[in-house]
Amino acid sequence: MDKLSKYFRDTVEEMRYKVTWPSFEELQKSAGLVLIGSLVFAIVVGLMDVTFESLLKAFYNSFR
Q1: Which of 22, 48, 49, 55 could be disulfide-bonded to 26 (CB atoms 3.0-4.6 Å)?
Q2: 42 is in which domain, residue-wise?
Q3: Residue 18 domain-assigned (yes or no)
Q4: Is position 19 within any domain?
Q5: Cβ–Cβ < 8 Å for 52, 60
Q6: What is the pLDDT of residues 9-22, one digit of tens each?
Q7: pLDDT tens digit string along 27-44?
């Protein structure tokens, strides 16, 4: 049990004193970049989906 409590004490100490936390402005910039990147990725995947759907429909309709 001593090892477990020492582990948690060491973890709390490290999180308080040894971790460099980003500032609020840095967090906002990072969140904005993630949002923009996610939107771009969603648009690209959506365009690929529409393109492949139309290609497959054209391919299947060529056998009718």
Answers
A1: 22
A2: 37-63
A3: no
A4: no
A5: no
A6: 999 999 999 999 99
A7: 999 999 999 999 999 999
DSSP H or E run through 47:
helix 24-61
Residue 8 lies in a domain: no
CA distance 29 to 22: 11
Q: Which residue has the tokens 């840095």?
A: 26
Q: Which residue carries 């970049």 as its tokens? A: 33
Cβ burial of 55 (10 Å; 0-12, 13-18, 19+) is exposed
Task: For residue 37, give the nearest of 25, 49, 47, 29 by alpha carbon.
Answer: 29
- Taking the CA of residue 50 as centre, how many other CA atoms within 13 Å lie in the half-sphere pointing to its CB? 5
d(CA 8, CA 4): 6
Q: How many domains does the chain have?
A: 1
